[in-house]
Amino acid sequence: MFMEKLETRRLMCSTAINTTIVADRAAVFGALSQFETDIANGITTLNADCKALKTDDVGGDATLAPLIKQFHTDANAMDRQLAADVLAEKQNVLNDQKTIAGELLQFVADKGNPTARAADKSVLQADRVQLENDEIAGLNSRIATRKTDYTELGIDLEAIQNALGNDTNASAQLTADVNQFVNDRTNILQTLFSDLTTIKDDRTKLATDLTALETVT
């Protein structure tokens, strides 16, 4: 469930940007960094959980093994959809970046021509807004995917925990480790969802402020 790794990027600029935009971009980068950190921490935690479950021979538990397998099947299905969402967003963003790169070249070529540069700047600002909007659309797709799939994963986790309570063959250690696995999975799902929502909100503010800047200038 960790294929959805975002990459921070430098936003292309041609002129100095006001302090509001600088602050907005810092917030976006900070949110992206937090997301990356939470993914890394989640991987470490879940690797430890899976190692403990293998040591406990959870695969030999007839009650729990099929339920955990079902959870991983559903989690893998979510991963595949998230990966498709990411690729669709990257395609749109790369197209936007290509457009902006060409406009930056034109801005440089128009040195000494204030009228042309003013027009170039207006186009650049509009396309930076479009870039942010495409990022937001991609985030919305992944948030929608997570909302849908979290319902199914939540049912899976609940089924595991309910079955554990009636599993007389589960050792005390296996019981403790399965509970840890369920709690960690639940917490990580919630954390990553919250991170994505924060990134979306920060990008929305950046897009709004870029639009306002375009209107003023």
Explained architecture:
The chain has about 220 residues and is an all-alpha fold. It has one domain (about 20-215). About 80% of the residues lie in helices and about 0% in strands. The protein is built from four helices and no strands. α2 (about 65-110) packs antiparallel against α3 (about 115-165). The radius of gyration is 23 Å and the shape is elongated.
Features:
217 residues; mainly alpha; 0% strand
Quick rundown:
The protein is mainly alpha-helical.
Label the structural class.
mainly alpha
Order of helices and strands: HHHH
Largest sheet: none
Shape: elongated
Distance between the termini: 44 Å
Tell me the number of strands.
Answer: 0
Number of domains: 1
Q: What oligomeric state is this?
A: single chain
Question: What is the beta-strand fraction?
Answer: under 5%
Q: Unreliable stretches, pLDDT < 50, 5 or more residues?
A: 6-16
Number of helices: 4
Report the C-alpha radius of gyration, rounded: 23 Å
Helix coverage percent: over 70%
Average of pLDDT? 88
SSE layout and pairings?
Blueprint: H1 19-55, H2 65-109, H3 114-165, H4 172-216
